[in-house]
User: Which sequence fits this backbone?
């Protein structure tokens, strides 16, 4: 039950991020340009940390979290693939805004999927090592400090090219802020609602 609830929540986050990655927005306060998916990625990192407590052992928790990550990857790839298929379908009437709004470029799709599987897996390994050894208030941001720059560098370099690495800094700040301000309260809330298995 706990893993199923977390997986559903997680898949919802990552497929929403897949769509939001198409728009570059300005971060409040820091005024840095970032893909709109930045904040959701920070929340997804925190959600991976919750999955570690869906099993009694560190190894089983890691395996559950990795299964959740793979489900997120499959759902994200399915969404991206079906959106591309839909873009190439013959429209019933002209002037529909679908293609312009959701017709992602292959570079954004590839960057998003590559960054996702690498950074989320690193987040998972780091969190599994720290499970039970470090309090959540430190463990959740610490894992994001490791995985967020990797995620940002991979996504930006593939999606927008090496000439746009200036976007990495804003993404890093946005992911860490989202992890601390939204993800960490979610971790404590979910752990209270869904007690860990022992």
Assistant:
């Amino acid at each position: 039950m706990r893993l199923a609830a977390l997986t559903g929540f997680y898949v919802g986050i990552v497929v929403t991020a897949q769509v939001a990655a198409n728009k570059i927005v300005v971060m409040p306060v820091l005024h840095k340009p970032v893909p709109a998916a930045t904040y959701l990625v920070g929340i997804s990192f925190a959600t991976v940390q919750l999955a570690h407590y869906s099993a009694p052992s560190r190894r089983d928790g890691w395996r559950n979290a990795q299964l959740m990550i793979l489900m997120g990857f499959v759902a994200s790839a399915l969404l991206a693939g079906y959106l591309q298929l839909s873009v190439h379908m013959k429209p019933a009437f002209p002037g529909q805004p679908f293609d312009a709004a959701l017709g992602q470029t292959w570079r954004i799709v590839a960057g998003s999927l590559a960054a996702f599987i690498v950074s989320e897996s690193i987040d998972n390994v780091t969190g599994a090592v720290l499970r039970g050894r470090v309090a959540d208030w430190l463990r959740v941001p610490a894992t994001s400090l490791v995985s967020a720059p990797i995620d940002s560098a991979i996504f930006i370099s593939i999606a927008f090219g090496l000439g746009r690495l200036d976007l990495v800094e804003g993404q890093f700040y946005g992911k860490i802020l989202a992890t601390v301000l939204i993800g960490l309260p979610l971790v404590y809330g979910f752990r209270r609602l869904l007690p860990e298995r022992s």
